[in-house]
Design a protein that fits this description.
Elements lengths: L9 H6 L3 E5 L2 E6 L3 H10 L2 E4 L4 E6 L3 H8 L12 E7 L5 E11 L2 E6 L4 H10 L7 E4 L4 E7 L3 H6 L16 E6 L2 E6 L8 E7 H14 L6 E2 L2 H10 L35 H10 L3 E8 L10 E4 L2 E11 L6 E8 L9 E6 L2 E8 L8
Parallel strand pairs: 3-13
Antiparallel strand pairs: 1-2, 3-9, 4-7, 4-8, 5-6, 6-7, 9-12, 10-11, 11-12, 14-17, 14-19, 15-16, 15-18, 16-17, 18-19
């Protein structure tokens, strides 16, 4: 087995006593003290995440926007400098290669933020699709780390050490700005993966430990906690955010995943997978992402099966006991025949025993 890759904050995690795990070839903190306490910190106060394993791609050139429009089903033509959006990379069959954030720095300069496990795959795919476009792709992932600050107190904490106006009117969701944190030049975006308000801070490797320390110090009086992958997963599940390898894969379209709001089939530009997605929409979905809740305390897990009477109708993609809600929640896919309605209730097979589940509207948790 090869050596695990490390983020530039690896020493900080170890100094804080984090329990480290192999996460897709990366040595990452799964928790520092308690997943439940870290989850609660983000919901009630604020949490600090190292997401430096994610990919940051830089796309520059006169045809950068045209290339992006061809690569994604969402419409980036409406973005001005400092704005961003959520979208996917699709294959010609309409399946999802990855989901990602795209930010416009200016008309000829764009950032693409991709999932850690897909960094190499995504880079090769995008590079292979740029033939004929006057646009140059490079990766910043080996010298730019990312810290995420999430939770209701995130803006208050960050405003103590950052000169940028963090008012949601000045810095709305899916915005990006250049700024400084205690003299360190950073890029700052506002998106989040937890269902809470939050920021992503893109920092050169050489300065990232100092920025991490500054944030922890600034948030000490607010109960800011470093948060590992365990709570990151329960937080994103409560917010019903899809995770690649669970709700999204090469065989699953963004339409099936309930992300139709991010697919602009009417946009003027042609894009990869457009015809397949149009056909899928016209013919009707054969599988649909659903959310469900169970009674009791038995939590559903990935690959558990969903049943209606004696027929298997689907599979669980993510599940957990919800720390915020206090009962088991899950997401999964239900297979549909043409014109068939989604069932309101069904069973989850948990280790050979059927447990009744009720379909619910997503997300499970929404901040007030």
């Amino acid at each position: 087995m090869g050596t695990l890759k490390v983020t530039p904050l690896n020493a900080r995690h170890r100094a804080l006593g984090a329990k480290m795990v192999d996460f897709g070839g990366w040595d990452m903190p799964v928790q520092y003290h308690s997943i439940l306490k870290e989850h609660e910190a983000v919901r009630q106060r604020a949490g600090l995440f190292d997401v430096s394993h994610m990919g940051v791609f830089d796309l520059k050139g006169p045809d950068a926007l045209a290339a992006i429009q061809y690569l994604i089903p969402n419409d980036a033509s409406r973005l001005t400098a400092g704005k961003g959006l959520y979208t996917q990379l699709c294959n010609p069959q309409g399946g999802t290669i990855d989901d990602l954030l795209i930010f416009c720095l200016n008309a000829e300069h764009w950032w693409l933020i991709v999932n850690a496990g897909n960094r190499d795959k995504d880079f090769e795919w995008i590079a292979s699709q740029l033939t004929g476009f006057d646009a140059q792709l490079s990766s910043l992932a080996d010298n730019t780390g990312i810290i995420a600050l999430q939770g209701p107190s995130a803006a208050d904490i960050l405003s103590r050490i950052c000169e940028l106006d963090l008012n949601p009117v000045s810095l709305p969701a899916f915005s990006i700005r250049a700024t400084e944190i205690q003299g360190h030049k950073v890029m700052l975006s506002r998106s989040g993966y937890t269902g809470e308000d939050g920021f992503e801070i893109y920092v050169p490797y050489a300065q990232i430990e100092a920025v991490w320390d500054s944030l922890l110090t600034a948030g000490q009086t607010d109960g800011l906690e470093p948060v590992g992958l365990g709570a990151r997963d329960t937080l994103r599940l409560e917010a019903a955010m899809p995770l690649y390898g669970h709700e999204l894969d090469d065989q699953t379209s963004p339409l099936s995943a309930g992300l139709g709001w991010s697919v602009k089939l009417q946009k003027a530009a042609d894009f990869i997978g457009k015809q397949a997605l149009i056909t899928e929409k016209e013919q009707g979905l054969t599988k649909v992402r659903v959310g469900f809740v169970l009674e009791g305390k038995r939590a559903p897990r990935q690959d558990y099966t969903l049943w209606l009477d004696d027929q298997q109708i689907g599979v669980v993609t993510s599940g957990s006991l919800s720390p915020s809600l206090g009962y088991p929640i899950g997401m999964g896919y239900i297979q549909l025949q043409a014109g068939q309605e989604l069932p309101e209730s069904f069973d989850v097979d948990i280790r050979g025993q059927r447990h009744p589940a009720r379909r619910v509207k997503l997300p499970f948790y929404k901040r007030s």
